[in-house]
Amino acid sequence: MGDKDGGLRRWRTRYREVLDGAEAEARPKGLRELVQPVDEVAYKLFRETYPEQHLHLQVALGAAQRTFDRRTRTSVQNALRCVVRTVLDDPRLGDRPDRYLAAYLDQEVAEIRGWLRQDSVTAVSRGLNIGLAMGAVAGMALLAVPVLWGVPVLRVLGVTLDCANRWTLLGAFVAGGLGALGAVLSVLVRLRLSVEQLASRQTVGKERTIPPGRQLARSLRHEGVYRVFVGWILALAVYFLLSGGLVPVFELPATTAQICPAPGHAGSAAKGTDFWVFWCAVGFVSGFNERWAFGILGRDATHRNTKGGAPQATAHSSPSGD
Fold first, then answer.
1. 276 neighbors 174 (Cβ within 8 angstroms)
2. In sequence order, what are the beta bridge partners of 265?
3. What is the tens place of the pLDDT at every residue in 53-84?
4. How far is CA 146 from the centre of its chain?
5. Burial 96-129 (b: 16+ CB within 10 A, else e)
6. Among candidates 300, 317, 250, 302, which has minimal Cα distance to 279?
7. Percentage helix, strand, coil, to 5, in the chain?
8. Residue 283 and residue 182: Cα distance in Å, rounded?
9. CB 3.0–4.6 Å: which of 132, 159, 176, 288 could bond 182 by disulfide?
10. Whether pTM exceeds 0.70
């Protein structure tokens, strides 16, 4: 029983880490704790001789203890132990800085920073993909529930839908569902080449500090869900504009009046196919252009910032690259 409970607990921990990333260390440690007691004198000499590199290594250790991916955390901490061990054992460690030893430390710091940046990229990609998946699942539910159970529920409430009403509502749900799919594909296409740029944009403060991976993942997860629902809303808006005749420039290939049987008119199954194909295409194209709505918001915010002064760095930005 205990093994079963322990396995379930480990599974839950792994699931949470996939979704939200690894939790920060409960007991943060400093660089000095990586040093053996017999090396205290050498460590003090290193700290006094190379204060800048020591500070960079200390900052890297602090960032490693709150990384999104636990494997990155372990790799960075092991690398730091190796660096400290190498420096303390180096015979060139003395009262005055050695340029070769300093160059080695600078190179190691640069590589560790690259690992930490890649961890931020992983957090951004994971969060956005999970957000898109959650939005797509919610979109499928919004599509399936009314289609499967909407008519019986309305019948219980005393509302009867004729053939034209059913085709109209089904067209709206199909257009909205394809709009959500188009929004997902739109983000994925742009995400393939812009994840690192997106991670670099999630910065705060004058020093362009990147937030912890868990915060990045949570922020981009919400962004992914929002994108899917923006695709839904845009597709529905276009559907109602065109089906309502508010934009007479477009000629609909099929209407409900042509599909449904009526006195003196048997209806047309071929027109029904045209109806589905047309609104599926309209919904998908509308959702695929979800970045158009975010682009309008971005330009409006930029315009306000320009009028009020120099634009300020924001803690959250769009993954579209607009």
1. yes
2. 262
3. 999 999 999 988 888 888 888 999 999 999 99
4. 29
5. ebeeebeebbeebbeebeebbeebbbbbbbbbbb
6. 250
7. 75, 0, 25
8. 8
9. 288
10. no
